[in-house]
Write a structure and sequence with these properties.
mainly beta; elongated
Length: 186
């Protein structure tokens, strides 16, 4: 196949192009599906307008940005609801910071996180939620051992119910927890 085929302004419908070791020095636009069987490297920006389906590992020397993010701080107590419903439209990443907690060993607390309307999707296309503790200002074990999870997801109310536990044998929690929550489209 000649290089002129790639430069043609003529729409090449239903064509399959197999390329080995291609280097593209400008922009590449794929209007349909694209499959990479091996490794794909990108030293600049990579924008995906539709779904990005990854069956292997995603690696990067910088970071992967998944849209706008919003940060909210809990008020009063560990069981106080966090209202993130005012986050900018399209927000899919949330960082939640709790109050300083002294939850006793073996104890637990539950709080609700209100998200923007529709953030969790609608039936039958609910979104997935990725939840993690990404920081604890206390020292693990000597200041308790925090454990947290999403106990329930209520898309109709755009609400997550989050449980925080101290799974330490004897020490109370003594610090601030920070959670990272990502909403991934179904």
């Amino acid at each position: 196949m000649s290089a002129n085929y790639f430069r043609s302004d003529t729409n090449q419908e239903n064509q399959t192009i197999k390329v080995n070791d291609a280097i593209i020095r400008g922009n590449m636009t794929v209007a349909g599906a694209s499959t990479v069987a091996g490794t794909m490297g990108c030293t600049g920006d990579l924008t995906v307008g539709g779904k990005a389906i990854v069956t292997g590992t995603v690696q990067g020397s910088q970071f992967i940005q998944a849209g706008p993010s919003a940060r909210f701080v809990q008020a009063t107590s560990l069981s106080t609801q966090v209202d993130a419903s005012g986050a900018p439209a399209g927000t899919r990443q949330f960082q939640i910071e709790t109050v300083t907690t002294s939850l006793g060993f073996g104890g637990s607390a539950i709080f609700n996180l209100l998200l923007p309307a529709g953030c969790l999707g609608t039936s039958p296309s609910y979104h997935n939620v990725i939840f993690s503790i990404y920081d604890y200002s206390g020292s693990y074990a000597s200041d308790g051992t925090p454990f947290a999870y999403v106990a329930s997801i209520d898309p109709t109310q755009s609400r997550l119910r989050i449980v925080v536990k101290n799974i330490a044998a004897s020490q109370p929690l003594a610090g601030i927890l920070q959670f990272n929550i990502n909403i991934i489209g179904a």
